[in-house]
Write a structure and sequence with these properties.
By secondary structure, the protein is α+β, with helices and mostly antiparallel strands. Helix 7 runs antiparallel to helix 8. A hairpin with a 3-residue loop joins strand 7 and strand 8. Strands 1, 2, 3, 4, 5, 6, 7, 8, 9, 10, 11 and 12 form a 12-stranded antiparallel beta sheet that branches. Helices cover 38% and strands 30% of the residues.
Length: 319
């Protein structure tokens, strides 16, 4: 009987010991994470601007902050939760994932400084719900490349996913070393810093957005207030739908004359996709840039005055 009891007690003891070890390591990791975070805030003189209700960490490096508040200039932001995970902080490799849940202003609505209340007002929803987003950065300095992924979910407006690969990121590390220390600008100057950043190159970009009510509301408001109807010529809703359909066909024809769209391999597909999204016939819109060779940030900026260079990006627009 005693042997049987002992047989069952041993696994239970192992589990309890493992649990105690886990919570002990988590408590230690949490205290170390909080200490490090406070050091960073002091370094950037933000210790009085950023606060949190609780902080927890796992032995594997995931840090969770709850009830976070921050003063950004004249704006106040708050988040229900911020999770930092998958962290690597080495000289030749830096990686991290940050997930923010319930980002809002003090009134509990999506911050105007991030998403813009003008968008909500224009589509009949001036106060949007809190915003969720995540960002993951994986920088490999040996490979001189970085992958950046961003996703956001703004209920009653839009959600989106961005994935980008950039090259020549060694410039960032060189710039950091030049801007640090007692000689803050290292003789570089702000214009020198901007010139250095302009040499970073884009290798690939994928963007996909989905309508979560913004486009749908905008179309409804447009039909109601911008499309007149004639009494006695059928139901107002049917008149507006017919006119809107005709206008959408005209938009597609106008789109083909755009100086950027005309540089694409398939302008008709691009215009069809744009109009399908803008007219509510599709709730998604995607853009892919796959240049045959990396394109510097400086060259991307010059596209404003040289649309013909847009063809080098091998852009595709779909819905």
């Amino acid at each position: 009987m005693e042997k049987n009891a002992l047989k069952w007690m041993i696994p239970g003891g192992v589990v309890l010991a493992g649990a105690a070890l886990w919570f002990g390591l988590s408590a230690y990791a949490g205290s170390q994470a909080e200490k490090k975070l406070r050091q960073i805030l002091v370094e950037y003189d933000l210790q009085d601007q950023v606060h949190w209700g609780s902080l927890a960490a796992t032995p594997f490096g995931t840090v969770t902050l709850k009830d976070v508040s921050a003063d950004i200039g004249r704006n106040q932001l708050q988040a229900q939760r911020i999770v930092v995970s998958d962290v690597i902080d080495e000289r030749d490799r830096q990686r991290a994932r940050i997930e923010v849940t319930g980002l809002s202003d003090p009134s509990g609505h999506s911050p105007a400084i991030l998403f813009g209340n003008s968008i909500g007002q224009a589509t009949g929803e001036p106060e949007l719900p809190p915003l969720d987003f995540s960002i993951k950065v994986d920088a490999d300095y040996d490979d001189d490349r970085a992958d950046v992924a961003l996703s956001f979910m703004q209920d009653k407006a839009l959600s989106g996913d961005y994935a980008m690969r950039i090259g020549r990121i060694g410039i960032l590390r060189d710039l950091e070393s030049q801007l640090s220390g007692s000689n803050a600008m290292g003789g570089l100057g702000i214009f020198g810093a901007l010139a250095a950043l302009s040499r970073i190159s884009l290798e690939h970009l994928e963007v996909k957005i989905r309508d979560r009510g913004m486009v749908e509301r905008a179309i409804a408001l447009y039909k109601r207030y911008q499309i007149p109807v004639e009494p006695g010529n059928g139901k107002p809703a049917s008149q507006r739908d017919d006119i809107f359909k005709t206008q959408a066909e005209a938009w597609e024809a106008q789109c083909l004359q755009d100086r950027y769209i005309s540089q694409l391999d398939d302008p008709k597909q691009a215009c069809r996709a744009l109009v399908r999204f803008a007219s509510g016939r599709s709730d998604t819109l995607s853009l892919t840039l796959a240049p045959s060779k990396p394109v510097s940030a400086e060259s991307l900026y010059q596209l404003q005055s040289s649309p013909r260079q847009f063809s080098t990006l091998n852009a595709e627009i779909d819905s």
